[in-house]
Structures are given as C-alpha cells and as structure tokens.
Amino acid sequence: MNYSVLPPEINSLRMFTGAGSAPMLAASVAWDGLAAELAVAASSFGSVTSGLAGQSWQGAAAAAMAAAAAPYAGWLAAAAARAAGASAQAKAVASAFEAARAATVHPMLVAANRNAFVQLVLSNLFGQNAPAIAAAEAMYEQMWAADVAAMVGYHGGASAAAAALPSWQQALRGLPGLGQVASAISGGAASMFAAPAAATAAVTPPALNTGLGNIGSWNLGGGNVGLLNLGSGNFGSLNLGGGNTGNANLGGGNWGFANLGSGNIGNTNFGNGNQGNLNFGSGNLLGNGNFGFGNAFGDGNLGSGNVGSTNLGSGNFGSFNVGSGNMGMSNIGFGNLGNNNLGFGNNGNNNIGEPPRHVRRLQFLERMGSC
Fold it and tell me: Which SS3 state, helix, strand or coil, does residue 150 take?
C-alpha cells in the first residue's frame, strides 16, 4: 500500500484505532512459552535416550535407536530456537508500531486543523485570512508528511522483522520421513491456493472504507455512497462533511459541486444557504455570482439585500444601481425612486443632485399619503 497518497485523516485514524500492539505482545509471550516448552522437551528427550543407550540398553539396536533419535532431539532444540526468534521478532514489530504511533499526528489535531481551515475560508470574504489559511495548509502538509514518514518507518520495521524469521519447512527437511511431507505440503498448498487467490484479487475491488454502511472506496465515516468522502451521509465523491449530494463539497448539506459551506444548492458557492452558482456570502437566493448576503433573484450583485442584478451596494430593488436603497434602474446614489438618477432622494427619472427642500417635503407627504 502506498501510504503517501493517503491523507492524515486516514493514516492517523488507522494508527489510533484498533487493538494496537497488544496482539503482537501477546504473540511474543506465546512464542516465549512455546520456546521454553520445546527446550525442556529437547533436553528431556536427549537425556532419556542417552541414559537408555549408556546403561540398560546395549548393542547394535541401542546404537541404531540413538542414531535415529538424534535428529529429532536436534529438531526440538532448533524449533525452540526458532520459537524464541519468533518471540523476539514479534516484540520488534510491536516496538515498531509503538514508535510509529508516537510519531503519528493525533486524529484530533488533524480534525482541529481542518476545522480551523474551514472556518478561516468561510470568513475570508475580503481576503483578510489569506496568511492564516496558508499557515493552516502548511501545518496540514507537515501533518501529512509526518504520518507518511511514520507509516514508512513502521512498514520497514515490520518487513525487516518478518524477513528475519527462518522457514519452518527447512527445519522439517532434516527429519527422516518428514522432509518429503513438508515439501509436498508447502508446494501443494502453494499450487492449490495460487489460482483462487489470483482470481479473487482480479475481481475484488479495493473497498477500503472506515465506518459503517459505506458503498464505494476510501470513505471515512458512515453511510457514504461514492469515493474518498470524509464524513457521513454523503452521496458523491471527495466530500468533506456530512449530508452532501454531489462532488468536492466542503461542509454539510450541500447539493451540487465544489461548494464551500453548508446548505448550498448549486455549484462553487462560498458561504451558507446560497441557491445558485459562484455566490460569495450567505443567503443569496436564486442568483449567480453575488458577493454579499441576502441578495435575491439576480446576478452579479456586490453588497447585501439587493433584489435584481449587477447592483453595487445594499438594499437596492432593481438592476445596475450603485449605492443603497435605490428602487429602479441605473441609479447612482442613495434613496432614489426611478431610473437613471444621480444623487440622493430623487423621485422620477434622469435627475442629477438632490431635489430642493420643498420638493423633498412634497415627496415626503406624497409617500406618507400613499402609506
């Protein structure tokens, strides 16, 4: 497995979940016990046969018995040494795991980094968080590198321990009558299981998920359908969060592609609760390319609470207005009611400036009367 392509969310979680080094330490204790038992058996077998041949049993038959028993006594001693070696290698694997786990970044630190990154991006409406975002990404890359280095070291230590283990079939070949059996068992087993194993490897997909109810591969969480989702209830691929439908969403409850935030319906929205595409902010409704909050039924607004398109300001009702509180089209200023006005509080079209005081008073009375 190539650990370098796995993010720290996966490598760290795998190292800090499961049984840890306890099974290897238990195996080491078991191999130690077996080595002691085999050593006692070898010593007892050797002393019994030598006692028989040296005292009560003499002649050619005794010599033949001693010659036949010698390989078995030697095999018991060799098996005891191999068991002791297996115990030592199991301890080495456990030590390699503990060292790798100590060098691995804790999953909570990775989650905290990603949460801080999301919060910084969501609040970076004017680019003020760019240095902090870069620092968070640099720290995340360092976490990635630390986890990869830890996994590579663990893999190297475990591989070296496994390579140091001698073959038990080689020890059996020295025994009269059992060498052929050992060769037949090892060769027959290899030929018998080679074809099914190859066929299984050819048809089995790499469904490596962490969690429950996932359909796909490389999902970390539960109930995901797709690939490389980090979270739960995602339907798609490369989502970071929960309840997303689509691909490459960062947040929760998004419906679309490459949304950064939550509750967005559309594509490439940055914020929350947007409906449309390429909106920066929150609560933009049925529009595209809006920058701000609460813009509705239009495109390309820069500000908040605009209803229309291409307004620069806030609270405009119409399109192409520059300012705030304008109702109409192509007004520049504030509080204009009409079209193509330049100024403040104009009522009508094509006005420049603000109306005289008595006109403003009449406009005010007209508005009060209309209310």
Answer: helix
